[in-house]
C-alpha cells in the first residue's frame, strides 16, 4: 500500500527503492504482491509496455490472479500489444480452460485485431464459464452489434434479462436490436418496460419515436421525440427524426425548422445536411437548398452533397454550372452519381449528361 501511495505522489524512484528493499524477504505470495506494485508504478508512469510485462510475470506465477487479469487488458489496449496478448492469453487458457477473465481478455484482443469471429467466441466463453459475469455478456453483445449480427446480440440481451431481471442496461439495447430486425411491436414493449424503471432517459423516448413512426403513428412519434429533446437537446439524430415525422404529417415549416436544428447540433455530420437538402428539393425549394449546401461546405464535405448541388443547378436550368460540377465530381467519386439522377430525374434523358456519364464509366 505504501508503495502505491508513493507512486501516486509521483515519487517513482522512491517507490522502486521500496520494492527493492522488500525483495530480500520475498515469498511466492509477496513476490506476486511486489510485481503488482511494480506494475502499478509503471501504470502511474504511463509505461504501459513495462506494466504489461510485469503483469505477465504475475500471471505466470498465479494464472488466475484477478487483479492482474483485470489490469492487463488496460495496458494491452494502451500499448497495442494485441497479438502478444492473444498468444499469452491462449497459453493461460491452455493451462486452465475455465479461466473466464483470460477468455474475456482474449476476446478483446481479437476484437482489436479485427478478428470478430474469434472475439465473439472468446467473449461467449467468458460468460459460459462464469454465468454471473455480466460484463462478458455486454461486451460480447457489443461486438455482435458492431458486426451487425443483431439477432445474436438480441439473444445475449434476452439471456441477461432472463438471468438478472429487467434492467435498462439490457432492455434498451435489446430494443435497438429489435428495431434493426424490424420487430417494432416487441421493441416498443421493451422500451415501455424500461420507462417503468426510469422515466427520464432520452434514448428510450427517441427509440419509441422510431417505433411509432414505423407504424405510421406520427402523432405519438412526435410526442415521444419532443420528450427526448427536452431531456437532451444536443442530439442531432433526435431533431432529424422529428423533422422526418413533421414532413410525414405535412407540417413542412416545422420539418424545415428541425432539419436546421439537426445540422446545428451535428454540423460535421454529412447525413443531416443531406436530409435537409433532400427535404428542400422534394419541396422544390431549390434556392434554399443551395443556401444550405453552401453553409454545409463550411463544416463538412462529401460527394453526395456535391451531387445534390449539381442536381439543384440542373433543376434550376443552370446547365453549364451543372456540367462543370459533374466534370469535377465524376472522376473523384463516380459511384455516388446515382443520387444526382434521383434528385434530378429528368437528367436521365439528357443527352449531354448521359454522354458525360458514359465517358466516365469507361474511365472508371
Automatic annotation (TrEMBL):
Keyword terms of this UniProt record: TPR repeat
InterPro entries: TPR-like_helical_dom_sf, TPR_rpt
SMART domains membership: TPR
SUPFAM superfamilies: TPR-like
The keyword Ligase is assigned to this record: no
One Pfam family, short name: Coatomer_E
Presence of keyword Glycoprotein: no
Domain of life according to the entry: Bacteria
TPR repeats: 100-133, 202-235
Protein name listed in UniProt: Tetratricopeptide repeat protein
